[in-house]
Task: inverse folding
C-alpha cells in the first residue's frame, strides 16, 4: 500500500494565468481612434511580445504591457 504526500504552498500573489494563442485580451490603450479595445492573440514571437489581430485595425505586435489578460475567476 502506498500513500500520497500532499504538499501545500502559500503564495503571496494571486494566481495569474498566462495568455495563450487564440485568447482575446483587453488593450490598455486603443491602437487608433477607430480601433477596438480588444485583440486576438495569434502567435507569441518572444517572451514578452505577441502577434495579435485587432478588429478594424489589423495585425500588429503587442508587448505584454499593452494588454491585460482577464482573470478566470
Result:
Amino acid at each position: 500500500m502506498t500513500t500520497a504526500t500532499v504538499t501545500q504552498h502559500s503564495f503571496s500573489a494571486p494566481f495569474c494565468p498566462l495568455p495563450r494563442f487564440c485568447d482575446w485580451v483587453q488593450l490598455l490603450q486603443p491602437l487608433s481612434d477607430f480601433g477596438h479595445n480588444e485583440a486576438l492573440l495569434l502567435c507569441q514571437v518572444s517572451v514578452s511580445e505577441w502577434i495579435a489581430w485587432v478588429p478594424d485595425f489589423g495585425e500588429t505586435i503587442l508587448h505584454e504591457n499593452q494588454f491585460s489578460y482577464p482573470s478566470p475567476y
Remarks:
- The chain has a mean pLDDT of 79.
- Strands lie at 24-27, 38-44, 49-54, 58-63, 67-68.
- The first strand starts at residue 24 and ends at 27.
- DSSP finds no helices and five strands in the chain.
